Amino acid sequence: CIASGNTFVCACPFGYSGGRCEEQTLTPNRICDRNPTLCKQGGTCISNSTHFQCVCRPGTEGEYCEKNTTISCYPTNPCFNGGTCYFNGFENVCSCLSGYTGKRCEEQTLIPNRICDINPTLCKQGSA
Fold it and tell me: Hey, which residues does 47 pair with through a beta bridge?
């Protein structure tokens, strides 16, 4: 605010105009254009006439795609048999529980109900 006799003049910050800086002149489209790295981790900035939004890649979330998510992959967890899905920076990857393998943990590596195979530490000192 700059005093000018009995009145004042507003020196508006970038993106605002009007007698009291009440009009936003920087449209959401221009926000995306002027800030190409606004959305992090490869997220895409989109906008309409009222706001902008970051569309995050699988494995990321948050207003600016700034958070990694390892709980489940978007939109659903593609891993079978209790496997956990995470995004490794390029694609969704399944981390399989013991006894399962395959890209989606779909292959069983142990015979069912073989408790000794599943838990080899049941017998101490290497006894069978």
Answer: 52
Task: Tell me what pLDDT residue 64 has.
Answer: 92
Closest CA to 78 of 91, 90, 65, 89: 91
In contact, 83 and 63? CB cutoff 8 Å: no
Above 60 in pLDDT, residue 9?
Answer: yes
Angle at 84 between CA 79 and CA 87, to 5 degrees: 95
Tell me, rounded to whole angstroms, the distance of Cα 40 from its chain centroid.
9
Enumerate the domain spans of the chain: 2-68, 70-103
Torsional sign, CA 73, 76, 112, 121: positive
User: Lowest-pLDDT range, 53-62, 82-91, 94-103, 119-128?
Assistant: 119-128
Pairing of strands 23-24, 44-47: unpaired
Q: For the structural domain made of 2-68, what CATH number should be given?
A: 2.10.25.10
Q: What predicted TM-score, i.e. pTM, was given to this entire model? A: 0.36
Report the sign of the C-alpha dihedral through residues 115, 121, 124, 126, in that order.
positive
- Report whether pLDDT(106) > 70: yes
